[in-house]
Amino acid sequence: MKKETLYVKIAKVMEEQIESETLKLGDKLPSIRTIQKLYNVSINTVKQAYLALESKSLIEPRAKSGYFVSKAGRRKFSLPSVAKMKTTTQEKEPEDLISKVFNTLNDQTITQFSLGVTANSMLPIAKLNKGMINAIRRLDNGGTGYEPVQGSVNLRRTLAKWSFVLEGKLGEDDLVTTSGAMNAIFNCLMAVTKPGDTVAIESPVYFGIQQIVKTLGLKAIEIPTHPITGVDLEAIKKVLPRLNACCFISNFSNPLGCLMPDEHKKELVRMLTEYDIPLIEDDLYGNLFFGTERPKPCKYYDEAGIVMWCGSVSKTLAPGYRVGWVAPGKYKEKIIRQKLVQTISTPSLYQEVIADFMENGRYDLHLRTLRSKLYSNCLKYQGAIEAYFPEHTKISQPQGGFMLWLELDKKVDTAELFDQAIKQKISFAPGRMFTQYNQYNNCMRLNFALEWNDKLENDIKRLGRLVKANL
Amino acid sequence: MKKETLYVKIAKVMEEQIESETLKLGDKLPSIRTIQKLYNVSINTVKQAYLALESKSLIEPRAKSGYFVSKAGRRKFSLPSVAKMKTTTQEKEPEDLISKVFNTLNDQTITQFSLGVTANSMLPIAKLNKGMINAIRRLDNGGTGYEPVQGSVNLRRTLAKWSFVLEGKLGEDDLVTTSGAMNAIFNCLMAVTKPGDTVAIESPVYFGIQQIVKTLGLKAIEIPTHPITGVDLEAIKKVLPRLNACCFISNFSNPLGCLMPDEHKKELVRMLTEYDIPLIEDDLYGNLFFGTERPKPCKYYDEAGIVMWCGSVSKTLAPGYRVGWVAPGKYKEKIIRQKLVQTISTPSLYQEVIADFMENGRYDLHLRTLRSKLYSNCLKYQGAIEAYFPEHTKISQPQGGFMLWLELDKKVDTAELFDQAIKQKISFAPGRMFTQYNQYNNCMRLNFALEWNDKLENDIKRLGRLVKANL
Questions:
Q1: In angstroms, rounded to a whole number, what is the distance separating the alpha carbons of residues A380 and A392?
Q2: Nearest neighbour of A341 by CB, restricted to B133, B212, B340
Q3: What is the complex's ipTM, to 2 decimals?
Q4: DSSP tag of A165
Q5: pLDDT of A177-208, one tens digit each?
Q6: Nearest residue in B to A141, CA atom
Q7: Beta carbons of A144 and B133 less than 8 Å apart
Q8: Which of A61, B119, B143, B261 could share a disulfide with B349, CB 3.0–4.6 Å?
């Protein structure tokens, strides 16, 4: 009885700390060992206290990172709505809007909620620089010569070795390196489609994918996408015979942050295999999971070689290195040919630096810290939005990555809001950027891979105030 | 009178040295000052002697490099023939042949006459490595971040500054950086054509250009190309209304080494401007001239912005860096959009290294040495081929770059010869690689940017013997 009282007591203290915001949303809780020493109790007592808090959804465990103050149990805002399938031809490309948002990117005085880039403070820049100097010394002729078209053997081998999630199904020869994931997707679509072909994409969809599709003269079918479970399989089924390819971000899609459940992935691959339709799977956020383990890619379920699995380190290490890759399945020769024709080869140095960083465990360590920061930020953003944005704001519940999707009142036009926000030195991505149709005009995407501080919180507050003024 | 006797005497001595091959084909002559001291005569006397030798075509002056033993006056082999214009559709892509040749590239034991790559010994690798380490320290965050889509400001500024040949017509904002010249051409063709369009290319044509054209679903018209003056303007005129773009290497084309005369360039630009047809000008060999000055690009004559001037450092500094650029004229926005969609940006580091290398005069110095080596090699190769290849071999007379084009007896099939040569550890590029038609089967391209030594000479001898055996 005494034991039970103890853990209840501890749990109560912490619950009060959470209620009074001494422990704020997204904060990491003290480690079990710290609490044990503090209260002079057994490890088990602390564990029981944490379990009690977890069962009330007040805290959440994070693999290898400890416990965090959570809010799952007292979610105030509901999820964004799912778009209806549209069959009309595209209405208007959001190019001008995209250009406008991109033009603000180099202004350092603007808070860049719009970017899909991790804050420098979250990246191991000094370590990478050191790795670069080592690689220059190690490389034959300092990497001045052409590399084999398929890419650095070293990087491919390391990638294969570290792709635990594929359970050994991937060898170095199954990979081709690219200039980032965007380039991988471009190559894949070049390889498996011809102008006039039809490609299924998400909705809302990452505008980069939308732009590649347009540039290649392809037709896009936007598949309704659920903020938690991703693309709607029933919707895909309906258009299946018309498709020449699919291009999805299966894990923590940008902008919704949704995660396709394993059964969906399996069923999707089965359906596409039946029709021999290639799936370009952009898995660049897969390592930024908030759950207990890295989610499987669709590639895991691919027996026929139809899945072209794309990845990169642009979101986790160094966007400017332009290091990406693709495991193109049965389309490998086509991809190699594409790469040869487009650019002959990719620079060796960056690939070597990344291979080295992965090889000796530094990447794994870095990812653990990064995930924990992102998750904590995600909760803090959600908390701030709930506090400062109007009632009835809808907000996504990302399970990884670093994008939040907000759906505001129908009266708010986020393209107009953008112009107002820029004057206040705040940039975000208006919803209209993420579709070829006239929709999502009241939505916005926020990047939460920015360093959390008072200024950032205040920027969210000011943004919320702007939204309210637009009602 | 005494003076005249003196210079005639000196000229005679040197002529004898050339005849007896004490001074060999391609050798650099002693400097005027050296001869002056040796014979204790005036500078003018030596100059007169050299002029006399030059008038007999025994020696040739090279800008800023001195005089070289020449052979223009006693050329033994004639020029390769010019192909007739074909109007049939393409017969067969030489893809398998290209793959076969490429597959031999990583074998270090093979003499790579087939490659379009400068020997490492001719490149300033140590200096570039040093520049790289400096650049890492200088760059913001070690270049981990995205660079502006248009490319490094530093590199663009330096390129503009060093483009003396354009006489100040080029500003930093007129340039976009790319992953090498191949990538620049790919982007240009993506930007200004759509599948089914028609593009004029040279014949024989660099197979990389041919492959881009095919990959993009374009039709190629091969324009007859003269080994000295380049593409036949009359032939272009005939097909002009059918063209959507032209893609030519105006200076020292690969594989012929020809140089379009200025009047041709001017007329070509005029013709294309009239029809508003974009000219993609690949000028990656322009700095490797054997004459007295860097030839002008077509871009120089471009008032309407139809010329997309492409360049790179792949032939002169570091192929593996993948640093190239394009001055796309009025198509700039399209090119930037293409680059954004294909790969977002290019890595900063290599661009900074190249900018720095150009900026403080090291590039210029390096080019002077490289040109002199290449020219000397060109003469030595020609001499060896005249010595060891069958009579009636036809051989190009490149005015820059580092490619030789040979036309052998009709009985020789260089695709078959390639298989035989590979067994003897010699690789070259069979003529069939440079056309979409069933022609050039008795031609071959040899790279002369290899370090000249006894082994190399012997390899040419063995290759000549193989050719003879095939007669």
A1: 19
A2: B212
A3: 0.82
A4: G
A5: 999 999 999 999 999 999 999 999 999 999 99
A6: B125
A7: no
A8: B143
